[in-house]
């Protein structure tokens, strides 16, 4: 079997946290390299820095055909990681992503046996770093990334909280800094059930680069209800489709301050389209995620918020009002809409989505 070099992927929304985590990895043991990348949309360039325990090994600015995260991965990230692996100089690589970058595109590539194998790489872990005392503010921040000059492309319409939430959801290892009851509870509510949370300064190479012999045991996630009486999660599920007119009319009642929501939904006017919901505060992204796979269609939306418990009741009421009724289901009133259902701006025209 060919020898491959393990790569741990690190995502953050704070350059200081990124550099702190990278430094901790470098001093944890010999044989580690750090690849750090930063995108500049204005100049359409990428700055690539490679360092190890001896200092900076490489620091160059690379022009990109398009200043976007996908192009950066294709044009520079994978080739550079491959050259680093092929050099024989390092045993492991930490890839510190551009600030606010989603780890999914690069982790998908590194987890693909053919793509990763061509470059002599394998995915070791995907980690995210968050600061607990500021997490409540950061997670529900609906300011566009472009306002903070953190957008990774001209069409990167994400808000800051969306970037934070995405990194928490996609990380297998969540590293936290500081102490805060609400921040700690939010991490536990948002991160995956089978993932691991550690204090940044307790994490070692065995956590970022686990092997069969050193793989840490996954501890059960604590009881969410006992973490904080201020943080809550509400799961809304229905096997019935949602009525497009009522959903459009009530959508503002489901995009609320201090609430994030994510999931899938089944729209009565688009029976074949799997619809995706991703909201932070007053910012809501709705998109088509392909066609429904075989089996039943259903809606599952998960909301996490802080504070007023009446918000949960309001969300449940707004959602229930959108679900098609027994009468609509039994009389065949649920059918493809002849007229515009109002969701073309998000989901495309219905003849294209069908």
From TrEMBL:
It comes from the Bacteria. Transmembrane segments: none annotated. InterPro entries: CobW-like_C, Zn_Chap_cDPG_Synth. SUPFAM superfamilies: Hypothetical protein YjiA, C-terminal domain. Residues 231-319 form the CobW C-terminal domain. Pfam families: CobW_C. This is Cobalamin biosynthesis protein CobW. It comes from Nakamurella alba.
